[in-house]
């Protein structure tokens, strides 16, 4: 019987990208490098400095939570696969094959895997990074299957890390695990491809959910326009639509009606730090009302401690209901604000800007890149996979 690792490896080895695939890879490269560069002054740069290239670059690309997301698998594909490819000297095809494996493996792990507390970016990411790095190193299908199996012992990460340094670091560990596995496979290390089929049910996945049809990344990638968890993008969008028409001093109550699945990662009711604020539904709504367009400055410790924030957080009530859906964009989110005197205003939103069904425009994406630093647009001019590795190595030197 053909093992799942062998099926994925053969698909990756034989994969030929379409022109649409290559455009997606180009945007993923630019997005990932831009959000990493935006974190140059972040304390994570010092923490990650001793780590190998793939781990260091992945942690820096993820620490601001501004990187892209594949919704069906609930994985941050590019923050793992781009650094793995760059560290191994690869190109767009290697990225797309790794991204395709990550999307499919994450989907096979399923929503139950995610809601049980696993960080799917890490669990699906380590084997996917092995494929991305393995193709970059010239591995054939047999070598890729061995690399997948060699990456599995390090395929772990937990959601309890959300809101702490550990979240970005464990994503870095996943990227590095894949590169390490690929290099070991290239050196001739043996492994049993059946390990993937035995591992999947251990973590709640199922091999029969692996679907190798469709484009490189089925259902596309979501682009974040706000630097925080993707589950906050829609509540922010709904609240922003109300902000301009409100006198915030008159706000008495803020009711958020949401599908329960859509806010599963938002574990911090009253955030005390900027990192925790990136995983707070209540803060998502409050910062959108206060700041209009929440950017990096909205997710600092000082921003979270603002008296106006604390006052409005006390007025937020969340009503989460089961909707039958099982992803971060199931159903719709409604924000209803009650003002002094009893008047209410509300906004209901199904898709945030940047979702695959409402893709970021070229102008929105350019604004995101520009917001990552005044020098970033120029640094990304004529960016290639080879120059991206040099750029990240200069921005985040190893120590």
UniProtKB/TrEMBL annotation:
Ranges where the MmgE/PrpD C-terminal domain occurs: 226-373
One Pfam entry name: MmgE_PrpD_N
Classification via InterPro entries: MmgE/PrpD_sf (IPR036148), MmgE/PrpD_sf_1 (IPR042183), MmgE/PrpD_sf_2 (IPR042188), MmgE_PrpD (IPR005656), MmgE_PrpD_C (IPR045337), MmgE_PrpD_N (IPR045336)
Superkingdom of this protein's organism: Bacteria
Signal sequence segment: none
MmgE/PrpD N-terminal domain location: 56-197
Homology family: Belongs to the PrpD family.
UniProt cross-references to PANTHER family, sorted A to Z: 2-METHYLCITRATE DEHYDRATASE, 2-METHYLCITRATE DEHYDRATASE-RELATED
Protein name in the entry: MmgE/PrpD family protein
Species assigned in the record: Kitasatospora phosalacinea
Taxonomic placement: Bacteria, Bacillati, Actinomycetota, Actinomycetes, Kitasatosporales
């Amino acid at each position: 019987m053909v093992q799942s690792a062998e099926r994925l490896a053969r698909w990756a080895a034989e994969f030929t990208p379409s022109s649409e695939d290559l455009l997606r890879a180009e945007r993923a490269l630019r997005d990932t490098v831009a959000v990493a560069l935006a974190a140059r002054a972040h304390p994570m740069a010092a923490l990650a400095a001793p780590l190998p290239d793939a781990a260091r670059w992945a942690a820096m690309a993820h620490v601001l939570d501004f990187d892209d997301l594949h919704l069906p698998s609930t994985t941050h594909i590019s923050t793992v696969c781009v650094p793995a490819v760059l560290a191994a000297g690869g190109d767009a095809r290697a990225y797309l094959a790794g991204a395709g494996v990550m999307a499919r493996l994450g989907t096979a792990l399923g929503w139950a895997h995610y809601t049980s507390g696993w960080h799917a970016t890490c669990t699906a990411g380590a084997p996917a990074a092995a494929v991305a790095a393995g193709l970059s190193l010239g591995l054939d299908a047999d070598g890729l299957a061995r690399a997948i199996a060699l990456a599995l012992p390090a395929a772990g990460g937990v959601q309890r890390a959300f809101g702490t340094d550990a979240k970005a670091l464990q994503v870095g560990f996943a990227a590095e695990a894949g590169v390490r596995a690929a290099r070991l496979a290239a050196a001739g290390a043996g492994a049993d491809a059946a390990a993937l089929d035995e591992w999947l049910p251990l973590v709640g996945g199922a091999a029969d959910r692996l679907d190798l049809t469709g484009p490189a990344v089925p259902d596309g990638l979501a682009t974040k326009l706000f630097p925080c968890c993707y589950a906050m993008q829609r509540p922010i969008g709904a609240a922003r639509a109300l902000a301009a028409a409100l006198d915030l001093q008159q706000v008495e109550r803020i009711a958020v009606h949401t599908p329960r699945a859509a806010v599963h990662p938002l574990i911090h009711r009253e955030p005390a730090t900027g990192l925790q604020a990136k995983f707070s539904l209540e803060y998502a709504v409050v910062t959108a009302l206060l700041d209009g367009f929440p950017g990096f400055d909205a997710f600092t410790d000082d921003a979270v401690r603002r008296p106006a924030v604390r006052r409005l957080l006390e007025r937020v009530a969340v009503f989460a209901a089961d909707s039958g859906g099982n992803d971060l964009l199931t159903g719709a989110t409604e924000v209803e604000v009650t003002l002094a005197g009893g008047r209410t205003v509300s906004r209901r939103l199904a898709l945030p800007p940047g979702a695959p069904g409402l893709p970021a425009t070229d102008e929105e994406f350019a604004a995101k890149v520009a917001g990552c630093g005044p020098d970033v647009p120029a640094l990304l001019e004529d960016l290639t996979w080879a120059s991206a590795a040099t750029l990240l190595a200069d921005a985040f030197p190893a120590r």
